[in-house]
Amino acid sequence: MKKITLFLLLTITVQFSFAQTINTESPSFSAGGMTLQKNIFQMETNFGVNFYIPFDGSNQSYLLPTTLLRYGITDRIEIRANPTMISYNDVYSLTSFLVGAKFNLIGQKEEKIQLSVIANYGFPMTRSSIHFEANTILTFNYDFAKKHSLGANLGYHFQDLRSVTTKTYSNDFFATLIYNYQIFENLSCFIEGKWNADLRYYTPNFANIPPSNNTSHNYYWDAGLLFKINNKIQIDYVYGMDFDNSTRFHMLGLHFMLDFNKK
Fold first, then answer.
1. What CATH number is attached to the domain comprising 79?
2. Whole-number pLDDT of residue 17
3. Does residue 167 sit within a domain?
4. In the chain, where does DSSP find H-type helix?
5. Gap between the Cα atoms of 26 and 4, Å rounded
6. Residue 223 falls within a domain, yes or no?
7. What is the pLDDT of residue 90?
8. Less Cβ around it within 10 Å: N or C end of the chain?
9. How do residues 49-85 score in pLDDT, each as one tens digit?
10. Do the domain assignments include residue 227?
């Protein structure tokens, strides 16, 4: 499930505060402090690959083209849907389908400080061990200079995982910190770090096996480039790994925006 959670978190990423242009939540871990404006629709599509020790191609998983759909119903509220499909050991499955909303609390458009909250609910998937999931994320962004900004996230992700032998309750607390730099008008880069603590409680389906629990701490870093082809289309690339060098990942993204406001 660490592989699935990593990719789920990969689809939840940074926004850049360029007015009247595409404003994505890909490809980093961090979600931005802004919401989409009213009647703006965005489709954000990513393809990724995870490599695991021993990095010889024998142990890897693929994030198949997965899509984050976003629509602004007001200037401060957007609705969203995020199906995620993964291939691991040549087994393809729709592992998650999250729906939710994002609410802007402070700052929009050209303001230097933005603060928002995201809430998502996940539907159970037939070929996934996820029986139920939900998350809440507090997002922050500060444009402290003309081409420089900092962002941060604090979040909680709950999963109810079921298998033939065990019920597992995963409580994932996480935080991110990201620095963005606008190289040119249409080219930006970022570097970020992420920490998460996953507290898991195991309840076996057999009366003779007692419940147990486990806590793991994970640290990641990643860096990427974002290129705006025009005001409505963006492509990007990100590379990252965890700090113990047991996982490395690559991500490519293609995203576009539609403006349904009357001209």
1. 2.40.160
2. 37
3. no
4. 2-10
5. 17
6. yes
7. 59
8. C
9. 887 766 665 567 776 667 899 999 999 999 999 887 7
10. yes
The torsion angle over the Cα atoms of residues 125, 128, 130 and 131, rounded to 10 degrees, is 50
Count the domains in the chain: 1
In a domain, 122, yes or no: yes
Task: Read off the tokens for 41.
Answer: 């629709």
Q: Which amino acid is at 254?
A: L
Half-sphere exposure of 190 (CA within 13 A, CB side): 32
2: left (phi over 0), alpha (psi -120 to 50) or beta: alpha
Token digits for 99? 């729906």
Which class for 64: exposed (0-12), middle (13-18), buried (19 or more C-beta within 10 A)? middle
DSSP state of 63: E
Q: What's the whole-model pTM score?
A: 0.85
Quickly tell me which residue has 């349904």 as its tokens: 260
pLDDT tens for 150-181 read 999 999 999 998 887 888 999 999 999 999 99
Q: Residues 84-143: pLDDT tens digits?
A: 776 655 556 667 789 999 999 998 777 899 999 999 999 876 666 778 899 999 999 999
